[in-house]
Design goal:
The protein is α/β, with parallel strands linked by helices. Helices cover about 40% and strands about 15% of the residues. It is built from 20 helices and 18 strands. It is elongated.
Amino acid sequence: MNSDLPGPELLTTDEMYRADAFAIAAGTPGRDLMETAGAAVADAICDRWDVRATAVLCGPGNNGGDGFVIARLLGERGWPVTLYLLGGLDKLTGDAALAASDWKGQTHPLTENCTEGAALVVDALFGAGLTRPLEGVPAKLAAASHVSDVPHVSVDVPSGIDGNTGADRGQAFAADLTVTFHRAKPGHLLMPGRVRCGELVVSPIGIPDASIAHVSPAAFHNSPDFWAPHFPFLRNDGHKYSRGHAVVVSGGATSTGAARLAARGALRAGAGLVTVASPEESLAANAAHLTAVMLEEFDGAPGITAILADKRKNAVLIGPGSGVSSFTRARTLAVLKSNTDVVLDADALTSFQEFPDVCWSAILNLPDRQVVLTPHEGEFKRLFPDLEDHPDGKPGRVREAAKRSGAVVVLKGPDTVIADPQGHIAINANAPPTLATAGSGDVLAGFVLAQLAQGVPAFQAACIGVWLHGEAATHFGPGLIAEDLPEMLPDVLEELEGYIG
């Protein structure tokens, strides 16, 4: 369950530069940081592979300086190493030049066939700050890495991957192992960067943890280490009413299953009581399937308002199976005017495709209400079509959507990103591909709803729900269907309590 990362903070490339500068200002020479970084990569290589012919590919900056250290240390351990440099030695400056001066072997020019005959390749060409596509020989070597049977190890990030967004800048290396330093970057967890990295190792290199407060990062790895203080553990003096009463609004007679999936998820995820609010035509279908989940009839938006007038009902989900219509729009606005925290999912989002500002105004006019939106990519694009090509990638898109809507936004996917209106984001990395199944998102909405019902702040509620969702799917394994997800929570929650309790 441990994330294997040294802390939940994710540092952008600029924040990592500032953390480096903080360490240097505190008395650690940059050359020492480079030496420690190179040693971390060399150690990781030796831990995983036996001695073999190795090609080390060095770039013209500090990433290349790390490569010179790696080559020297592997050579000192008896590894046959050949070093290739992009550009001339006379072009190296600063710590990279110092590292190169300590390398006593030959330095060969980088060529497109330089890795032929190697049994391991170290990519130390470009770090996370690269903002342009690879070209020429580096691009050809990157392309070759995708079809090679030879292990590739990347320093910091696979060359060609944007450290902030995970974007592939046209042609990036495919690594089997990536070693980065101090803290991971968003691009290590975002697609396709996460896939390109292979195994990720984050090594301390002597940068003080005080640097985190100095750079004040706003991005985090969605893990228990991030939200543990907010998790609503059971209390000996608690009771079902103290754990909140969640409401899930059902759709029509032919689309009731989504609401029941969400309701079951909310009950398993800790809500003390759960009620499905059902239109008359759906009562029989819902009643036939519900046991511990309660059932209450409503008639249109006024009926929802009447149900939510009961102040004990403190969190509501609308959207799953609701249908895309003006009726759903009216019911959603009624929910937003109630005295409850809210999760908007599926049809409750798409029903505002032509009128998104109406929804955002309703949210922004109720600043004391907590609202979470849980769109998948298609729903997100319908509501925020102008954010498709945001320069800051997926983190930028979700941050802007949260700011615009006044809600916490969960953009679902293999690299789900959660953002609050203040600009904080969490990136999830525990979701297996088995979650791509009908009804999975409805269960997720129920998991988030349960956290809101238990009084968890909206951002942390969304983060907890998303993490539980991924962990439950991982516990089940292949063959997963949505109904299985709530049934995995007892084991997940028991392990979680042992980890952070």
